[in-house]
Amino acid sequence: MTTAVPQTTVDSLLAACLRNAQPALWSNPARQAQPAAALPALGRTISLDDTHAAAARLARFAGLLAEVFPELAATRGVVESPLLPADLLQPALGWAEGQGRLFIKADHSLPVAGSIKARGGMHEVLEFAEGLALQHGLVEPCGDYRALATPAAREVLGRYQVAVGSTGNLGMSIGVVASALGFQATVHMSADAKEWKKDRLRQRGVQVVEHAGDYERAVAAGRAEAASNPLCHFVDDEQSFSLLLGYSAAALHLQKQLAEQGVAVDAEHPLIVYLPCGVGGAPAGITFGLRQVLGPHVFCFFAEPVQSPCFMVQMMAGQGEHPSVYDWGLTNRTEADGLAVPRASLLAAELMRPLLSGVFTVADDTLFAHLVRVLDALGERIEPSAAAGFSGPAMLTSTAAGQAWLRASGVGAAFAHATHLVWTTGGLLVPDAQYQGFVQRGRAVLAAQA
Ligand SMILES: Cc1ncc(COP(=O)(O)O)c(C=O)c1O
């Protein structure tokens, strides 16, 4: 694979913004209004049936999850987040009249792991556990999975290891769930990972391996170590179908939430979804699910830090290329630790080719300003990565590229009745001292803009 930057195919203005780490918007010329029901990715195809299978697996484990995680007792083991109207935030974001309505999908409050990564991470650990449980006769197919909480079952699962490479939040999700089920759990953390996330995992009996390099290096180290242990399952954030399908199950729940809140999704009422993106698995899984269940009038955009736009450079590159942000002279340094990824998942990128509407980038200072606006208007505590989506509506209305997309897609004509959904992807577990630091920085950014 080459890593050449495709100068000839890129709008030169966009390329200049990218290189200079200025916010930019890329829209996808290959998006299809009516994509095939089964889509190819890395040599296999996936469809809505796979999303339903993931949702069914999560449901089969709900009883067990409620037993091993006291915080899930109230929801009977269901790990879900609310859909919150965010009208109060619209003035702070500078919205004009006629821009439609803003909602947030509050994955920052997802229990157990505190981030969007709980969805995929939990699903993959449960899929591994289910395979072993059936193989060892610990449960009957579709039987009562609470049997896995018994000491005898935990002893069997404890012979196996689950490993993962992460910038922090996937590690949190995999580590916490795997160790709660009795697995040996190992998390390879990139240099970006925050100390408190490592401490929290260690307190739960998870082995944390610290790497001086970036996310890609942490994943590679984990993959290599796992290859030498036949009893180790490596959760591969760069190419895992199980992770991606776990994320995609969110679409089924969101579909119900939209209906409950009377939000229509049709040609007159487009739904525009803004999703923070790291390697791409989480936003791609959700986009895959949403496009399957909601059809052509849902438009998904990924949001990345200006120094880590790995998904944007991947989508701009030709087939067979796998560029990194370093190829563009960028540093991959960002306070949005969950999004600090230099090279996109090829699984996510291939799957998104016919589905995604575009990708935009956000400066770190803007993330902190959004974090404070969300606190002040809604009282919600999010982490910097989770704030990336809030720049989406302004990128559409206030940039030439956004306005061109609004015209070309037809969304502009229905904008007054649009629903904007910003996916807030993490924050619940951020310790207070760290959070207050985020707020201080955000207030300083806002004061400098006043
Ligand atoms: C808070 C948060 N948001 C978004 C993402 C992006 O997920 P992905 O890396 O699958 O694109 C991450 C990844 O760790 C994250 O931690």
UniProtKB/TrEMBL annotation:
Co-factor requirement: pyridoxal 5'-phosphate
Top-level EC class: lyase
InterPro entries associated with the record: D_Ser_am_lyase (IPR011780), Ser/Thr_Dehydratase (IPR050147), TrpB-like_PALP (IPR001926), TrpB-like_PALP_sf (IPR036052)
Domain (Tryptophan synthase beta chain-like PALP) ranges: 77-393
KW Lyase (keyword) present: yes
Entry keywords, A to Z: Lyase, Pyridoxal phosphate
Positions bearing N6-(pyridoxal phosphate)lysine: 117
Keyword Lyase: yes
Catalytic activity of the protein: D-serine = pyruvate + NH4(+)
Enzyme Commission numbers on file: 4.3.1.18
MF GO annotations: D-serine ammonia-lyase activity
Family the UniProt entry places it in: Belongs to the serine/threonine dehydratase family. DsdA subfamily.
Classification via HAMAP family: D_Ser_dehydrat
Name the record gives this protein: Probable D-serine dehydratase
Species of provenance: Acidovorax benzenivorans
